[in-house]
Amino acid sequence: MAPTMATEWNINQVRSDFPILSQKLENGQQVVFLDSAASAQKPTIVLDKEREVYSQYYANAYRGVYEFGAKVDEELETSRETVREFLNANSTNEIVFTSGTTMSLNVVAQAWGRKFLKEGDEVLLNEMEHHANIVPWQMIAQETGAKLRYLPLTEDGQLDLGRLPEFLNERTKVLSVTAMSNMLGTINPLEVLSKAAKTVGAKFVVDAAQYVPHGPIDVQALDIDFLAFSGHKIFGSTGVGILYGRENLLEEMPPLLGGGHMISEVHLDHSTWAGLPAKFEAGTIPIAQAISLGKAINYVNDLGWENLQRHEQELSAYAWEQLQTVPGIKIYGPGLKERGAIFSFTMEGAHPEDIAQLLNRKGVFVRHGHHCTMPLHNVLNITASVRASFAMYNTREEVDALIAALHFTRERLRLNR
Amino acid sequence: MSTVTLEEIYEDFEDLSDWEARCDYLIDLGFELPDFPVEEKTEENRVHGCQSMVWLTAELNKEQQPPVMAIQADSDAMIVKGLIGVILAIYSNRPPEEVIKTDVEEIFAKLGLTRHLSPARRNGLFGMVKRIRQLAIEQLSEES
Ligand SMILES: Cc1ncc(COP(=O)(O)O)c(C=O)c1O
Questions:
Q1: Is the pLDDT of residue B143 over 70?
Q2: CB of A230 closer than 6 A to ligand 1?
Q3: E runs forming strands in A83-184
């Protein structure tokens, strides 16, 4: 589908596509939603699609020859094709519907890892990974005797590429990395990392959960072996996600879960597996969610990724500049050039929990805590931070609201005295 | 010792029309909390179940007749400090028997704390209550 290039970013139009953004709180306050990194809001086109599925042709998938069943199958394949195109995968055989990024990464670690990792092998991660790209590897490392290694970060929260040679060697079987840090906002150089992984023959795995709402990733151009993302962060529904796997790799991996249409033949003493991608889609997949995911991707495609990125860059620059004016604030991560629109910070003298709670009083919704990056918070020597994350539907006025709310917080916590 | 009593908190809350004002009141209460000794901020004295740090100590003050619970607590978060103020008003300087008998859920509900606090926060609050009750029970069993 060729993206129709809107010449201008009409923020009001975009916002009107998201009914929740015009919500008012009980006290008449406008909601300022700055937690899209945790989960993004849904446009009407996604909400409508789910309703359409349930109200017009809902049936289980890949089972019925009757009309509803056939329609559901057709819609699912349309969505799968949209995802294939979005990632520039070779074939829809490489696009597996899962329940989300976490599930996808667990499939890679458990199904690929159990077969191909052995004692003495190494898996290279780094200090900024989300728990979803650490814990599954820990689990399989424990089982197989493989060793986990962590590439350190630079002072400003980027991967310390200079130290890559110390950590990457012929024992490295996997290099798994997030495309964008959900805490630091850092956008990682996938091209460099991919090349490095390939020089030692390691598989290159990408956690794209945080990146995909900000830009497409070309799995062929970047020579990516496995990639995971979640529907709910890219304006789709919860409960659905994607595992991209290079076809020959998915072929040689055993399935992780058994049952449903992942089988070819079942005998009392053994079974054989269905072809791709069914082999990895055990049980009933999230049908309506998987169908509407295609609509979410269409939606951003139609807005135009270039426009989206321009808008987010402008917004980021403004937020970056404004946040610095707040006394006592410390923003973690790299400068504007290397980051996306995620700002995690602490404010001297204020606990992140107090900040989040007081911002909420001004209708500004931000996240606080460790953001599922406890190792990263340890490296930064903090237990928690506040995170304001922006999406394409956020505005400069919302940055202003955040800043005003931070000043209110300082006032309430008597930090100005 | 915090001087505000539970009755005073009830009265003040009554005058405060909305949760926002009550939240401000809690923050102010937090600022009035007596200093907690730094050397007592140990792992042993930490109350778990809170997202923020909470330290709490309780012992029996036998100079009073009957002996009463002497409670001290602190947090790194201001709103939690305010909640500690409420906890102290409920439990501090009460005999252990009374501590065990107090229906704290009723008090929290009456103050609107049950409705306005997140489950995580509520768990943290009950973590403190649990620790105080435990210490009160220990005191009683030591006496007998
Ligand atoms: C970088 C990153 N990886 C993985 C995940 C996990 O995604 P999900 O909970 O949808 O499986 C997240 C979500 O917070 C994330 O930001």
A1: no
A2: yes
A3: 95-98, 122-126, 147-151, 172-178
